[in-house]
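@channel sequence for tomorrow's demo:
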Amino acid sequence: MSNYLFRQAKIREANAIWNILQDAVARRKADGSAQWQDGYPNLQVVEKDIDRGAGYVLVDGDFLVGYCAILIDDEPAYQNIQGTWLTDGSFVVFHRVAVSKDYIGMGMAQQLLLHIETFAKEHAIQSLRADTNFDNTAMLRIFEKMNYQYCGEVVFRGSSRKAFEKVLAV
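structure tokens (generated this afternoon):
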């Protein structure tokens, strides 16, 4: 069994992370999803994530397995939800979840989300929030499997997205 480690990304890993994201962009397109087909995310977004300490990777020895950006209380679009969040307090929001093509189908996206839950607990935050495109069936299935609740819609770059929240036990 591999020993996976979840940690902050390093700037020298930005290009490798971008490669993982580019593969994920291609998979979304192949799945018929419009998500990530507009030039976002890109290498500059990854570099910004890392620079501000928000970029995280799941690693298997020397191999990058997956990537996500994690922020606390930092998603202005979530203030304008067409719907209702489950909680009103602090929240952890995650974006840009992507898994290396070499690890697809091994439950690694779920592993990333479990590590994000641990991150939230370590920061004494009970609420996890995220959003995805209405046609990103892979992520929608993961949210369902991991007991995220659909809360409504938020708008990013002119597109409506499904918003989800999971409330963690104390």
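heads up for whoever presents: The chain has a mean pLDDT of 93.
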